[in-house]
């Protein structure tokens, strides 16, 4: 399948070059079109929600407009000076806002306030068991990152010595690799253990 696609692309480029278009120009056009389609895909739901919200707002303010009740039946909207009708409109608007908020979760002030309350519950003081577990867990994560980088460089050196047929350096690097594997395994197990301990402490 990739071969067929590459052949088709080559023929298309050759045809366009015959018409006087360069490959760079065609590539830029394709990339621009793809980016424009992706931006359209991202912005379309937002624009659609805005338009439906404006239409809903217009129908709510129009006294002669029919609307649907909770059973999805069309009913005549009562006069605007009726206090019961105003209460019903407020309740419907509040439900619509809650549904929209449920459909589109995001980072807002309510989320930050709830997160702050949760953190106060999970970590009550600066010097407590939970903060100590968090500090040790962070230290283990940083150590694992440095160990991963060091092991990757060692593996590159091992492959280099294999290609050079340097047996002595290959054996030395292999022994170093086995020496690093022991603390790396311990740190990985420690991270899992600390994650479980933190989950229990937070509960």
Automatic annotation (TrEMBL):
Keyword set includes Transferase: no
Transmembrane parts of this sequence: 170-191
All residue ranges annotated as the ABC transmembrane type-1 domain in the record: 118-203
Entry GO MF terms: ABC-type transporter activity; ATP binding; long-chain fatty acid transmembrane transporter activity
Swiss-Prot/TrEMBL keywords: Membrane, Transmembrane, Transmembrane helix, Transport
A GO BP annotation: fatty acid beta-oxidation
One of the record's GO cellular component terms: peroxisomal membrane
Coiled-coil segments on the chain, per record: none
Disordered as annotated region, ranges: 57-86
Pfam families reported in the protein's UniProt record: ABC_membrane_2
UniProt protein name: ABC transmembrane type-1 domain-containing protein
């Amino acid at each position: 399948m990739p071969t067929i696609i590459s052949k088709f692309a080559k023929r298309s480029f050759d045809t366009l070059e015959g018409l006087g278009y360069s490959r760079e120009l065609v590539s830029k056009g394709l990339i621009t079109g793809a980016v424009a389609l992706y931006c359209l895909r991202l912005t379309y739901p937002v624009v659609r929600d805005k338009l439906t919200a404006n239409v809903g707002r217009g129908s709510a303010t129009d006294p002669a407009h029919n609307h649907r009740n909770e059973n999805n039946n069309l009913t005549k909207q009562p006069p605007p000076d009726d206090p019961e009708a105003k209460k019903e409109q407020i309740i419907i608007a509040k439900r619509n806002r809650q549904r929209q908020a449920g459909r589109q979760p995001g980072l807002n002030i309510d989320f930050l306030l709830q997160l702050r309350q949760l953190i106060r519950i999970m970590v009550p003081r600066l010097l407590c068991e939970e903060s100590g577990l968090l500090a040790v867990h962070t230290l283990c994560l940083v150590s694992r990152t440095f160990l991963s980088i060091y092991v990757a460089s060692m593996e590159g050196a091992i492959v280099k010595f294999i290609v050079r047929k340097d047996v002595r350096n290959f054996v030395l690097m292999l022994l170093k690799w086995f020496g690093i594997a022991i603390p790396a395994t311990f740190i990985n197990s420690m991270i899992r253990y600390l994650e479980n301990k933190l989950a229990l402490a937070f509960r």
